[in-house]
Write a structure and sequence with these properties.
The complex is a heterotrimer of chains A (about 260), B (about 400) and C (about 375).
Chain A: H1 3-10, E1 16-27, E2 30-41, E3 45-49, H2 56-63, E4 71-76, E5 79-80, H3 85-94, E6 95-98, H4 110-120, H5 126-139, H6 155-167, E7 173-177, H7 185-200, E8 204-208, H8 212-218, E9 221-226, E10 229-234, H9 236-241, H10 246-258
Parallel strand pairs in A: 3-8, 3-9, 6-7, 7-8
Antiparallel strand pairs in A: 1-2, 1-4, 4-5, 9-10
Helix pairs in contact in A: 4-5, 4-6, 5-6, 6-7
Chain B: H1 8-11, H2 26-58, H3 89-122, H4 127-141, H5 145-157, E1 173-175, E2 178-181, E3 183-184, H6 188-218, H7 225-242, E4 249-250, E5 253-255, E6 258-260, E7 263-265, H8 267-294, H9 297-305, H10 310-340, H11 344-347, H12 352-363, H13 366-395
Antiparallel strand pairs in B: 1-2, 2-7, 3-4, 5-6
Chain C: H1 26-34, H2 39-65, H3 82-87, H4 95-106, H5 115-132, H6 140-157, H7 174-199, H8 204-219, H9 222-236, H10 245-271, H11 274-282, H12 287-302, H13 304-317, H14 329-336, H15 346-380
Classes of the chains: A alpha/beta (about 260), B mainly alpha (about 400), C mainly alpha (about 375).
Chain lengths: ~260, ~400, ~375
């Protein structure tokens, strides 16, 4: 996979939102990200898939520096990730993240979960933050739960709150780290619907998921990772129809068998 | 809905179940069981009570609380309120209660500080610090507290006398007479400054609340520390200075065979405080560690991904959750310090147990003496438990 | 695995995993990560190395290099401790242990009969080890306990099988500590189960009695119970009936332990899912059958780690009998240095006693945390 090819596929959309160049990461002696080159344009929707342990979660966690990379360059929205705390704050304001295990704050109500960051990071008055939060809670279709605590909601509802919470920061880019893997089948759909709706608004999204249906409907590009490297990438139909590597073929057959 | 309430069928209650006098009726059986158990317990206590009354009579032991107003005649070395042996037993016991509270409260503060530091140290990324804290906790928790107290006490007694006292810093002397610390001559201005400090803390609390409320209206985050600094430190200093800034240091000095002046910490109190603090800090360290670990890594990550700075993550997300886990077991440790301070009797610090014990030996009124000990501790324990129940209800996490 | 696609185009073979830069693995990297991550961490590491080395050096010179291990003893049995006194604290006087270890371990038990308390101690340790092994966790273990405890009583008292009778006043040292702790547990445990069940009972009078008992005992210090045992119990009993001081203290410890263990057992009963209770009831089991066959076996298994931790607490707490003058290990140690010749060598004695207590408690605490880890692993699966 040459860098030129990567560039070509993303040039159709606007300016680059995220650029990873020659990124390497180790956990101790374990080489978890190997020479990752990836460009994501503004408004582009990328799905990252691959077998477990292939480094896909680590990849997106590096983008908002929940993990630190050791070699290479990551530029998000024109700001390079470095040890400078100011650039880190700036990036985290622009990048929203949704986790596999929701990570809602159990001691705060749904509304407080959503208004926390606008109040303390965006310095928004409470009224304004609450109005904003209600707007997003309505968009994810759970405004009636606003006064409840996370423990009182179902998994699917919690994940939709987590999406609303991230959106309240008005991020330019959204990262999804296997948002549906911890959910029961009947709840997966409600979360995916929310994500499709979000995609329709033109949000830049990077999504780690095994939901191939979602990838087909929404993704501009699918990136397949294995053993810490990007093995193949391309438009979903093409990639799924004509996998060029054995690794992707094996992966796809396992995924299909599983469903 | 309002019309439905007139429907007589909805007003019907479950019919009362008649109690059948039959062994096959569960309710009847339950009542019989309970009556039997209560009767057995009452009989046992009644028997013990009649024995006791007989024994007291035979041995000519006085009963009743009359002794409380009699002259105690027992000397007490350390007293927070005015006391001499010609005062009543009641006064002596009151001195004992205050001595218990004194060592318990200072012990609680020190053990909490040390325990928190150790608990955080156990989770440190510095391997050596983490291992050291771990070893400390393991050793301290696996040795009987009484043994530790005796160890510290005999270590203190083994120290050289006042003439060869350890003198690590000017004015601090550690000898077999205990610890001597530099102090100041306490004057009214100092009491006022102390009051100003308390007022400063209260004002800061309200200022913080007001600043929060204002922030909620206009979004501006106002730093609180400049105000807090001014109110908590500046105000007392100002009060002190306005009253003439009296400052007469009272540094202990060796005169002849003993020290003069300074703050005097007796070896008994020092050994007890040291033992209680070091022992309980080991338990508190484990509680703090568990509390921090109870807040999952995901909570940190989610808060950081939202762009909250580290300090705010700690304040808004981690601490409120950790405190829920920490506070209940922490309170029981505070209670343990209070109860364990009763070991004072083994090294001769005169707490309530020690004084009540002397009282019961002098008067022979064992029942009253022990009743006083139990009453004091039960009062402390129950008031703390009541507070805890209220607190736990307030902070309980709402779940499905 | 072939790296050639069906159409023959060679594909990118997965590159060999590149080794992390040398700054990231190996002992140097480990030290950098864990000891010298930043200047703050480096400062802590250096300060701790300094303190530990300094402490270790002075401790070794006190405890080993400058220590006195034996002192001459006159034929009258009076030790000449001048050699120890001459050290003036720069060296330990282990001679006190050399001279007094039999007294510390066995108290005033007749000297030539010391093999009996020694066997008793070994029996206790054996009993602990057997009880710790999971394959022996059956009801039959209770029989083993009854057997061993009876044997211990026979050995201590004697009076049969050619063993001379030794009255209880002469028992002392480690066996007393072990007796108080073990008999305390043996009686407090069944009591605590009853109280825990009572506290969860639907019968209000029984529940109230149990709550009252637990809260009263937990609200007061153990010392007050021991005082009660030593000065009030004699008043409670009818004239002529007199129970021995050790037994009275034992009763106080049982009452104390029962309340704390009851709370541990109750936690186990509460942790059991409701379904277990309902299933047992649906099978038509009576209350006692349900409790004995379904509830207790599961609930007790759940609470074994906290039970062991509570037991460590009692083991340590038995030392409080010192205050009412019962001759346990700690009292024996404290008494050993009352003799004028040995006065002032408390630190050496307490360090030795500490080692004995530590061995028991550390073993139990390691056992309990190991068990806890194992239970958690099973539950996660």
């Amino acid at each position: 996979m040459s860098a030129a090819e990567t560039l070509a596929s993303s040039v159709r959309k606007g300016a680059p939102a995220i650029t990873l160049a020659g990124v390497n990461k180790w956990f101790g002696a374990l080489h978890v990200l190997r020479d990752i080159n990836l460009d994501v344009a503004m408004g582009e929707r990328v799905v990252v898939c691959g077998p477990s342990g292939s480094g896909k979660s680590t990849l997106i966690r590096c983008i908002n520096r929940l993990e630190e990379h050791q070699e290479g360059q990551i530029v998000v929205d024109g700001i390079e990730l470095s040890n400078d705390l100011r650039s880190l704050d700036a990036i985290r304001r622009e990048v929203g993240m949704v986790f596999q295990s929701f990570n809602l704050f159990p001691h705060l109500t749904i509304l407080e979960n959503c208004t926390l960051a606008p109040i303390w990071v965006r310095k928004m008055p409470k009224k304004e933050a609450e109005a904003l939060a209600m707007e997003y809670l309505e968009r994810v279709r759970i405004p009636e739960q606003a006064a409840k605590y996370p423990g009182q909601l179902s998994g699917g509802q919690q994940q939709r709150v987590a999406i609303a919470r991230a959106l309240c920061m008005k991020p330019k880019i959204m990262l999804f780290d296997e948002p549906t893997s911890a959910l029961d089948p009947e709840m997966i759909k409600e979360v995916l619907d929310t994500m499709v709706m979000l995609a329709e608004t033109g949000m830049t999204m990077i999504c780690v998921t095994h939901e191939m249906g979602f990838a087909r409907t929404v993704a501009d590009r699918v990136v397949f990772m294995d053993r810490g490297e990007i093995v193949e990438q391309g438009v979903p139909e093409e990639l799924f129809a004509n996998p060029r590597t054995d690794r992707l073929k094996t992966f796809l057959s396992q995924i299909l068998r599983g469903h | 809905m309002s019309g439905a309430s007139t429907d007589p069928r909805l007003l019907r209650k479950a019919p009362p179940r008649p109690l059948r006098i039959s062994w096959s009726d569960e309710r009847f059986r339950n009542i019989v069981y309970q009556v039997l158990v209560v009767a057995a317990v009452l009989t046992l206590f009644g028997w013990l009570w009649s024995n006791t009354r007989y024994n007291l009579e035979v041995r000519r032991i006085a009963t009743g609380w009359g002794f409380l107003s009699r002259e105690a005649g027992l000397p007490i070395g350390e007293h927070l309120i005015d006391y001499d042996p010609s005062m009543s037993y009641f006064r002596a016991l009151l001195v004992g209660v205050l001595n218990t509270l004194k060592v318990a409260i200072i012990g609680i503060v020190l053990a909490t500080v040390l325990g928190t530091l150790l608990g955080v140290a156990r989770l440190s990324r510095n391997w050596m610090l983490a291992k050291f804290a771990g070893a400390y906790v393991e050793i301290v928790r696996d040795l009987p507290l009484l043994l530790q107290l005796l160890f510290w006490y005999s270590l203190l007694q083994g120290l050289p006398g006042p003439r060869q006292a350890f003198n690590p810093v000017t004015g601090v002397f550690l000898s077999n007479r205990g610890l001597k610390l530099p102090y100041i001559q306490w004057e009214a201005a100092h009491s006022w400054a102390l009051l100003a400090f308390v007022v400063g803390v209260v004002i800061t609390y309200f200022y913080r609340r007001a600043a929060r409320a204002k922030q909620m209206r206009d979004g501006q985050i106002r730093p609180i520390w400049p105000f807090a600094l001014a109110a908590i430190l500046g105000l007392p200093l100002l009060v002190w200075a306005a009253l003439g800034a009296p400052f007469t240091p009272d540094v202990p000095e060796l005169r002849g065979f003993n020290f003069r002046g300074g703050l005097d910490v007796s070896p008994e109190f020092f050994a007890l405080l040291l033992g209680l603090t070091l022992y309980t800090a080991g338990f508190i360290a484990e509680i703090v560690r568990a509390g921090i670990l109870a807040v999952s890594q995901g909570q940190w990550e989610a808060a950081q991904a939202l762009g909250l700075p580290r300090g705010r993550v700690m304040n808004l997300i981690v601490l409120p959750q950790a405190m829920r886990v920490i506070i209940p077991p922490m309170t029981s440790q505070f209670l343990n310090i209070t109860k364990n301070s009763s070991l004072a009797v083994a090294i001769g610090y005169q707490d309530i147990v020690s004084i009540a014990n002397t009282t019961l030996n002098q008067t022979g009124q064992a029942i009253e003496g022990i009743a006083i000990i139990m009453l004091v501790y039960l009062t402390i324990s129950l008031s703390i438990s009541l507070f805890m129940n209220w607190y736990n209800k307030r902070i309980a996490l709402v779940e499905r | 695995m072939s790296e050639i696609a069906a159409d023959g185009t060679p594909l990118v073979a997965p590159p060999e995993p590149r080794r992390a830069p040398i700054t990231m693995i190996g002992p140097v990297a480990w030290a950098r990560e864990n000891l010298f991550a930043n200047w703050w961490s480096t400062a802590i590491t250096l300060a701790m190395i300094y303190l530990i080395v300094k402490f270790a050096v002075s401790f070794v010179s006190w405890a080993f290099l400058n220590a006195v291990w034996v002192v001459p003893v006159s034929p009258q049995g009076i030790a000449n401790t001048e050699a120890c006194r001459a050290l003036k604290g720069v060296g330990a006087c282990w001679a006190v242990i050399t001279e007094k270890h039999r007294f510390i371990l066995f108290g005033t038990y007749p000297y030539e009969q010391h093999w009996r308390p020694l066997i008793v101690c070994l029996l206790f340790i054996g009993l602990y080890i057997v009880s710790a092994m999971r394959r022996f966790w059956r009801w039959e273990l209770a029989l083993v306990w009854i057997g061993v405890l009876t044997l211990i009583g026979v050995l201590m008292w004697g009076g049969i099988l050619g063993m001379p009778y030794v009255p209880q006043e002469r028992w002392g040292g480690l066996p007393i500590t072990l007796i108080l702790a073990t008999f305390g547990l043996a009686f407090a445990f069944p009591l605590s189960i009853l109280v825990a069940l009572g506290r969860r009972s639907r019968l209000p009078a029984i529940k109230a009695l149990c709550v009252l008992y637990v809260e009263l005992i937990r609200g007061v210090p153990l010392i007050s119970l021991l005082f009660m045992a030593s000065v009030m119990f004699p008043l409670f009993l009818p004239e002529g009936l007199n129970i021995d001081k050790l037994l009275r203290a034992q009763i106080a410890i049982i009452l104390f332990a029962g309340a704390y263990l009851a709370e541990v057992v109750r936690a186990g009963l509460q942790a059991l899912p409701r379904g277990q209770y309902e299933a047992a009831e649906a099978l038509g089991l009576s209350y006692w059958k349900k409790t004995g066959f379904i509830i207790l076996p599961q609930a007790l298994r759940l609470v074994i780690p906290p039970l062991v931790n509570t037991f460590i607490g009692f083991f340590k707490d038995t030392s409080l009998v010192l205050i009412i003058g019962i001759f346990d290990l700690l009292t024996a140690g404290k008494t050993a240095i009352i003799e004028p010749a040995w006065q002032g060598f408390g630190v050496e004695v307490y360090i030795t006693l500490g080692l004995i207590y530590f061995c028991f408690c550390f073993a139990m605490s390691k056992y309990s945390s190991g068990l806890e880890a194992e239970f958690n692993r099973h539950r996660r699966r």
